[in-house]
Amino acid sequence: MLYAVVDIETTGGFASGNGITEISILVHDGQEVVNVFETLINPEQDIPPYIESLTGISNDMVMTAPVFKDVAAQIYELLHDKIFVAHNVNFDFSFIRHQLMQSGYELNSRKLCTVRLSRKILPGHKSYSLGKLCAALNISVSNRHRAGGDAAATAILLTRLITEDAENIIAQTLHKFSKEQALPPNLPKSQIDRLPSVPGVYYFKDQKGKVIYIGKAKNIKKRVCTHFTGNNISKQRQDFLQHIYTVDFEVCGTELMAFILEATEIKRLWPENNRALKRHEQKYGLYVFEDQKGYMRLMVDKYKKQSPALYSFNTQLEGYDLLRLLIKEHLLCEKLCFIQKNRIACTGHEEGKCSGACVGKESAAAYNVRVKYAIEYLKTILPTFAVMGEGRNEDEKSCLLVEQGKFYGMGYISPHTDVEGAEMLKSVLQPYPSDDYILNLIISHVQQFPQRKVVI
Prior knowledge:
The protein is α+β, with helices and mostly antiparallel strands. It has helices spanning 49-55, 59-62, 68-79, 89-102, 114-121, 130-136, 147-163, 169-174, 189-193, 220-226, 235-242, 255-269, 316-330, 347-350, 364-381, 422-426, 436-448; strands spanning 3-10, 20-28, 33-40, 83-86, 111-113, 200-205, 211-217, 246-251, 284-290, 296-302, 311-313, 385-390, 397-403, 406-413, 430-431, 453-455. Helices cover 36% and strands 21% of the residues. The model has no long low-confidence stretch (mean pLDDT 90).
């Protein structure tokens, strides 16, 4: 079995927007290096000053070097039938595979990551960066941050790993059913092995334990693994994978609960890599306030986080439809409810449907009585129901409560419990914040599974 130990230098950290400036390939037979290929590469773009200071490779040095396409055939022949080995292998592989594809070649080599292998075969080191690990193992690294020097050190490290692989870890890793080489370099496989295949929410965390991404899943283990498949070469994905050190999770009884928990946790923790749910905000709300003359006034306005809404809506039209219903049922003033503007008296007063609060003919006290009745009426027409589902085990069932049109909370109850009222459920359920996104999830769910809805 032959290995191709690879190291590259680049103009930046992600393959889709950067180029290779140097490549070194050392063919290793399991005992020693038997062939060497090394060249500078013209990346056909400027090398940033900080990259030049790190590697020592300048624009002048690569000006007369071959572009990647000129050496693509030679590189493909060296790599395609060998085990691709590198320190943080997915970085080097993503660049070379991308450049080869641009040149008409498709590389599908098996991979070995010497970072991951070192953590297993040579445990206990403080750092597994190439420089610090080699220093700890007394492996000499000449010409650090150049492809040739780093590849040579990686080849020596590979020899050491093969020699000390008493538990046959390399062969297990190369097994066709092993997905380990697809994992991020800093995420131990044990973190994946402990994940359950049930609904829930998972949390990717960085080296300091900070949550950097939250996701929901019908099958936690399967969903987590999908993050590491494919060949996305964007900077966002490369940075994201590089910073994953641990995965935590919380099991949920149903996929619906996982959706709700994910939305709530994203709003609570605000992870840097979650974007879609961050953009979801309630857009409009129905509010009540007392004006300077003492009249209670209902209005539809943009949602205000600091002001409690009587109800919230995705669209302004939904809000006005509900407000017009309250006006009709309780003879409220359209002008005081901001439905009509630029009029002295509302049309309802002209038609005998408004008692004249808009022109001062009805006192604030009298008008406010009907507003209060309207608010109480609103509570009666907004739905209160529970959604029952599977629990996390046979000794429980899941329960979500919507009270007067707002999501109250969720949790687990005994499968033998009869749902008799909202107050009984509220004593055992965990409260959660409500918003339109969550309400729409619940309503869509009960429309699909009406048998799970229990009207209270």
